[in-house]
Amino acid sequence: MEALRVLNNNVVLARDEKGQEVILTGRGIGFSSRQGKPIDPALIVRVFVPADGRDPDHVAETLALIDEEVLRAVVIALGEAGIEGRESTRPTLAIAVADHVAGALDRAKRGIVVEYPLKAETQTLYATEYRQAEQLLAAINERVDPKLDDSEATALALHLVNAGFASGDLSFTYTMTGVIQQMLAVVGEQYGVDVSQQSMNAARFITHVRYLFVRIQQHRQLKGHESTIGKGIRQHYPQATATAQKLATIVELRLGQQLSEDEVSYLALHVARMTMETDGGEV
């Protein structure tokens, strides 16, 4: 790779073999690089390939503003936790996590421990990300002083969830978390079942709703080509469809987005699966 711009000792903007601009991080990589010259591959810890039209130069400048040791700890920890490979299309994740860690370290030095109110929801709704966050926190703590409190796993998990959305902050993830909880409460009250249990169908419902939120963010709701299937679902599960329409109303009120008929149909299918799991029939 050829160096285009040295941002600091740990961050370099470069051009790879395909001719695209990438961001390289690694201890001392900037110190050893010169504009227009090849970069020593042994110094590269992570290669960021900005996606979604993000300006590589701007992203590189943002990375360079983060404390070098914090950025290094986070970049290496993301790899050790199995969250990011050597090449990543999500530099905003590293930026968000590093920024959070920097703030958490400052609080830790002052003896401040934050108890995040969404811990229970995060552990239940985003179990995979929470486990990854615990591994990430452990890997970060191997490289920072003072050590971060276990409660930081909740915030890190939310950042991992948020990485699936276009928004740069956690506001959409907080909203999504509240909406999912509200949806589960409606289903539980409607059918008199406990949907907070970690059942396979409840997990499928949560996963489906998370991808629904992604589609809403990207303005790519299911419609048209799946209308025949959607119609069949609505006919076969009328009561679950009525519940799904209530869930669609919640989404519209909270996000200002009306769901397509097919999205409502697939919500109905997951509602039916959850309730059949409990009492063995369509409700």
Protein described:
The protein is α+β, with helices and mostly antiparallel strands. It has a domain at 171-279: PTS-regulatory domain, PRD (Orthogonal Bundle), CATH 1.10.1790. The protein contains eleven helices and five strands, in the order E-E-E-E-H-H-E-H-H-H-H-H-H-H-H-H. A hairpin with a 5-residue loop joins strand 2 (11-15) and strand 3. The protein is elongated and about 65 Å long. The model has no long low-confidence stretch (mean pLDDT 89).
Low-confidence stretches: none
The percent of residues in helical segments reads 55-70%
List the helices and strands in order: EEEEHHEHHHHHHHHH
Structural class: alpha+beta
Number of strands: 5
Organism: Streptomyces indicus
Domain PRD: 61-170, 171-281
Pfam family, one: PRD
GO molecular function, one term: RNA binding
Topology readout:
Elements: E1 2-8, E2 11-15, E3 21-25, E4 46-48, H1 56-65, H2 68-80, E5 87-88, H3 91-109, H4 119-125, H5 127-141, H6 152-162, H7 171-191, H8 200-217, H9 227-236, H10 238-255, H11 261-279
Parallel strand pairs: 4-5
Antiparallel strand pairs: 1-2, 2-3, 3-4
Helix pairs in contact: 2-3, 2-5, 3-6, 4-5, 5-6, 7-10, 8-11, 9-11, 10-11
